[in-house]
Design goal:
single chain, mainly alpha, Glutaredoxin, 4 strands
Length: 263
């Protein structure tokens, strides 16, 4: 029988692998491609695991050597220590100011007049100068501390030219209040009922130390004690008390209104 046309046109250069497949499965040529792929996969897998294995060994991953965590903390501690030492050096270079008696009297009066609830700490020693930090609201170690103290003292006497440290149940205190009331001052006199305050036990001896007074009441005009009740009576009789009050900045009859509402 003559050969089939298909066999006459069959390529002569087919691979030996295809011939082997045709020989084993002559009736299942449609599975040739699948078999070839599976066979190729087996060969490739065998090559990878048996021949090329050394080349696939994973190289060790280098471990980055980070600095120990103690170093940053140590650096921060060193920096903090440096700035703390610098701050201490500044404090040592600028000691806290010491108030003179007039400055202390002005600062205490300003402290008391600022807020009714401001009280002098009961733990202080009233026979010694008070710690400025307890009654002043700025850094008393700064380079401007002396200037700021003078401003506080000047301001308190400008705002309160007449100050009376009174005793509530005292005939002399009532007499002084009457004298001041009759002057009709503007601004009106600033009156502290010392014996009614929570800090009376330290405030009274402190005022005695700063004004050389021996008893209440104490009358300050322009930040200066006028003297005893006898001195005040004499000055008032001569008209000199009004002169002192006017020089301190208070306006006599300044609080008196006319019928038209003028001052």
């Amino acid at each position: 029988m003559p050969p089939s046309p298909l066999l006459l046109h069959r390529p002569q250069h087919s691979s030996s692998l295809s011939s082997l497949v045709d020989f084993i499965h002559p009736r299942k040529s449609r599975l040739r491609a699948t078999f070839i792929c599976l066979f190729s996969l087996v060969v490739l897998t065998s090559y990878i695991f048996l021949v090329a294995q050394p080349s696939l060994v994973t190289a060790p991953i280098p471990i980055l050597q980070h600095p120990p965590p103690e170093e940053p903390r140590s650096s921060w501690r060193n920096l903090a220590t440096k700035y703390r030492n610098a701050a201490v050096a500044v404090v040592v270079a600028r000691p806290e100011i010491t108030l003179t008696s007039p400055q202390e009297l002005g600062a205490i009066t300003s402290f008391m007049a600022a807020l009714p609830q401001n009280v002098v700490p009961l733990t202080i020693d009233p026979t010694r100068p008070i710690d400025p930090q307890l009654i002043l609201d700025f850094d008393t170690r700064s380079a401007q501390a002396e200037t700021e103290v003078e401003e506080v003292v000047s301001d308190v006497w400008a705002r309160n030219p007449v100050v009376l440290f009174s005793k509530l149940h005292s005939p002399i205190s009532r007499e002084l209040k009457t004298i001041l009331h009759d002057m009709k001052l503007r601004p009106p006199p600033t009156i502290f009922e010392v014996d009614q305050r929570a800090d009376a036990q330290v405030l009274v001896p402190m005022l005695f130390r700063l004004t050389n007074a021996t008893d209440l009441p104490i009358l300050l005009v322009g930040g200066v004690s006028v003297g005893t009740i006898d001195d005040i009576r004499e000055l008032d009789a001569r008209g000199q008390l009004k002169t002192l009050v006017s020089r301190a900045g208070a306006v006599i009859d300044g609080g008196k209104k006319t019928k038209k509402g003028r001052r």
